Every structure is written in C-alpha cells, then in structure tokens.
C-alpha cells in the first residue's frame, strides 16, 4: 500500500488562465469532438427523427425449417468496409465546396465548339501576321547589311571630341571623380540668379547733368519736391502723436500721477455709494428663487413655441429658395460680376508683385532708406564742367547700391563713444595724514 501522500497544488481557480491548466476537461473535449463529427457527417443525432435512425428488418435469417423442408439460401452479403477506412472515402453528407466560376480558362471552356475554334484561329492568324512582319524587317536589315558590307561607316561627328567618348567609359569616369571628390556638387539654379533686377550702375536722370535741358531739370526738381513733401508729412504725423506727451512738464506729470493714485483714500461716502450703484448695474442675471422656477406647463409651452418658430423658419427658407430659382439669370449676372472683380483684383496683385521685384527686401532689422537726390538748383547751375560743384560720394553710392540690390543688409554707422572714467584716488600708508 502506497503510504506517500501527494502534495496538494495550491492554485487560485478564480483566475481564468488557471482553468485550462489545472481543470480536467477531457470529457468536455470528447463530447465537443463527437458533436463536430456528427455535424460533419449528416447532422446531430439528438435532433434526428426515429425513422432516420432506425429501420425494420424484413428479411428472414438462414435457419433450417422445423418440418425438414429445405429453405432456399440467401446470397451472402459482401463484407462492409472497416470503419477506420471510412475517413478515406468521400463523405456524401458533406456539402461540396463553392468553386468560383468566373475564371478566364473556365469561361473559354464554356464557349461552344464553334466559338472556341474561331478563337483559336484568330490567335493563329495574329501570330502568323506577327511572324510575317518580323520576317519582312529581318529581310530589310539583311538587305542593308549586304549593301553596306564593303563600305566604311560615315562618322558625322568629331572622333576626338569629348562628347564622342563611349558612354560606359564616361560613367566610370564620373563615378571615380564623384567618390574621389574631384567633381564639385551640383549648384542650385538660384545660386547663379541675381538677387535683384536693379542694374549695378543706374543711369542718373537727364536733369542731373551739368548742363541739362530746361524741361529735364524742372522734372527732376518736381521729383525732389515730392520726396521732400512726403518726408514732411511723415514728420508732422510723428509730431501729432508725440504732442500730448510734450505739452506736460515733468512736474505736472508727477502731480497728475499722485492725484490719480490718491483717489478714494479720503473716504467720501458719495463716491462709495456711486461705486455700489455701478456694481449693482453691472450684475445682469437676477438671483434665482424657488417661486421663479418654471412649471412643467410653462416649459411645454416654450417647447411648442420654439418648434412653431422653427417650422416658420423652414417655410421661409423654402420660399426664399423657390424665389431664387425664378431669378437664376440675375444670380448668374451677379456671379459673373464677382468673377470679373476677382480677376481684376488678381491682375492688380500680379502687377504689384512684378513691381515689388525691383524693391529692396528686408534682410535685417533696419529698413532700406533711399539716398537723397543729387541735383543742382537753378541758381547753382554752371555752364562749364570746371566750375561744377560735386554732389554725393562714390563709395556711399556703391554702398547704397549693394543694399538696394539685396547683396548686403541695410546698416547704420556705429557711433564712436568715448568713455571717460573718473580717476580713483588712493592714500598710501606712509603718507597718511595723522588725525589727532
């Protein structure tokens, strides 16, 4: 007798992952397997009728007659196949698999014999035509070869030019130069493009000549006058903005600030009352009370009222749509006008964009400031080049040209500040004054 006791497995069966491992479900699996086999082979036995399961045996067994008469022997039945071999045979109870019938080869097979022969004949004819074309081309090539067999090839290019090198040799050379870093990387197109369309040296106005025509000089004076008027307008706008700040002195501003800060510190009752009244006016929603709560009847009325308004709004929108259908022509005209306006606006924008190409871009913090026009007034004009008074500076002109052409950013001349420090005085111990 085995006296050894098995150690009890301490497993928590309240977790689903331990059910299958530590539960004996062999009988359940056998039952489910049997049920699946029944479904595969004609359906569940429990759901079948008695007539499907049982039959009446109407044949007599081969036994001797008690009176001694010979009973004719029945033909022996063939032995039934073994049940273990039953899985190898086709099962008639299982439904056949659904096979798609729209395959190309099946469609061709379904064709009638006449159509099939015609189809094959067309294929043969097409192949024959292709073969004929191929033979004709081969004959032409052979003919050309026979003609040009004993002739030297006519080279229509320079044999020693760089372009005439074999493509494979060129590819190898390019590959070698690329990985030995002899070739430079391909530069983008914008690298060679000019940053501005403004010419490097702009031709000055004809009125700026030392001996200009009267009309040209007057035109230049007009341009300069307009530029000065524009500057004066900008200055006047700036003065108008700064005027309120310039009217008050520093003492007045300090007194007004103290007065503003000391408001409400005296404890005036009138002011407090006015503030409380203002605070009452600010409150928009009244306090909610129990007696002000709406009843169910009132809410239903409001709901019906809202639904009625919604229906009226829908009817109104329907009428508007119906009226719009009748005035389709006028709507088309309006749409065409809007399209024309948009096209005109787009064309104006395109013109502005074209005009802005010549303007300098904002490359830095500062904005480009155009230099003053270099001109001589009417009384300053001289007929001789020797007496001409020089205007402007060549280096400044080139510097402004660089800025205008977006080559450098607009800059401001740095102011030279001279720092002055107060000298510190030190007293040496040896020379220190003795204080009594």
Automatic annotation (TrEMBL):
Chief location of this protein within or outside the cell: nucleus
A GO CC annotation given for this chain: nucleolus
Location of the protein in the cell: Nucleus, Nucleolus; Nucleus, Nucleoplasm
Pfam families reported for this sequence: Nop53
Compositionally biased region (Acidic residues): 266-281
A biological process term (GO) from this entry: ribosomal large subunit assembly
Protein keywords: Nucleus, Ribosome biogenesis
One GO MF term: 5S rRNA binding
InterPro entries: Nop53/GLTSCR2 (IPR011687)
Segments for region (Disordered): 1-20, 264-307
Entry function: May play a role in ribosome biogenesis.
Family the UniProt entry places it in: Belongs to the NOP53 family.
Name under which the protein is recorded: Ribosome biogenesis protein NOP53
């Amino acid at each position: 007798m085995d006296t050894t006791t098995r150690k009890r497995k301490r497993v928590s069966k309240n977790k689903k992952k331990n059910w299958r491992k530590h539960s004996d479900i062999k009988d359940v699996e056998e039952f489910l397997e049997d049920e699946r086999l029944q479904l595969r082979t004609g359906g569940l036995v429990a759901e079948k009728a008695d007539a499907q399961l049982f039959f009446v045996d109407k044949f007599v067994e081969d036994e001797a007659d008690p009176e001694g008469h010979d009973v004719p022997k029945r033909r022996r039945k063939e032995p039934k196949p073994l049940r273990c071999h039953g899985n190898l045979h086709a099962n008639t109870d299982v439904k056949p698999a659904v096979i798609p019938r729209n395959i190309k080869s099946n469609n061709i097979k379904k064709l009638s014999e006449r159509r099939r022969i015609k189809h094959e004949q067309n294929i043969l004819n097409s192949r024959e035509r292709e073969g004929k074309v191929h033979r004709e081309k081969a004959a032409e090539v052979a003919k050309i070869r026979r003609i040009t067999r004993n002739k030297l090839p006519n080279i229509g290019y320079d044999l020693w030019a760089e372009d005439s090198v074999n493509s494979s040799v060129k590819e190898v050379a390019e590959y070698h130069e690329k990985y030995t870093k002899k070739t430079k990387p391909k530069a983008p197109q914008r690298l060679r493009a000019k940053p501005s369309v403004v010419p490097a040296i702009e031709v000055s106005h004809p009125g700026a000549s030392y001996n200009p025509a009267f009309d040209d000089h007057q035109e230049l004076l007009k341009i300069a006058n307009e530029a000065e008027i524009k500057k004066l307008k900008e200055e006047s706008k700036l003065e108008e903005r700064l005027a309120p700040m310039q009217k008050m002195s520093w003492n007045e501003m300090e007194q007004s600030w103290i007065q503003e800060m000391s408001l409400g510190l005296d404890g005036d009752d009138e002011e407090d009352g006015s503030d409380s009244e203002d605070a009452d006016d600010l409150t928009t929603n009244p306090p909610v009370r129990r007696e002000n709560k709406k009843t169910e009847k009132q809410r239903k009325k409001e709901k019906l009222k809202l639904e009625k308004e919604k229906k009226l709004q829908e009817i109104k929108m329907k009428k508007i749509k119906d009226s719009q259908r009748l005035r389709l022509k006028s709507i088309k005209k309006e749409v065409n006008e809007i399209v024309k306006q948009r096209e005109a606006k787009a064309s104006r924008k395109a013109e502005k964009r074209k005009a802005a190409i010549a303007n300098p871009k904002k490359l830095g913090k500062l904005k480009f400031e155009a230099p003053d026009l270099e001109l001589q007034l009417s009384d300053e004009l001289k007929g001789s080049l020797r007496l001409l008074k020089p205007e402007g500076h060549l280096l400044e002109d080139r510097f402004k040209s660089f800025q205008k052409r977006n080559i450098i950013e607009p800059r401001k001349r740095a102011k030279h500040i001279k720092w002055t420090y107060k000298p510190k005085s030190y007293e040496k111990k040896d020379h220190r004054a003795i204080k009594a």
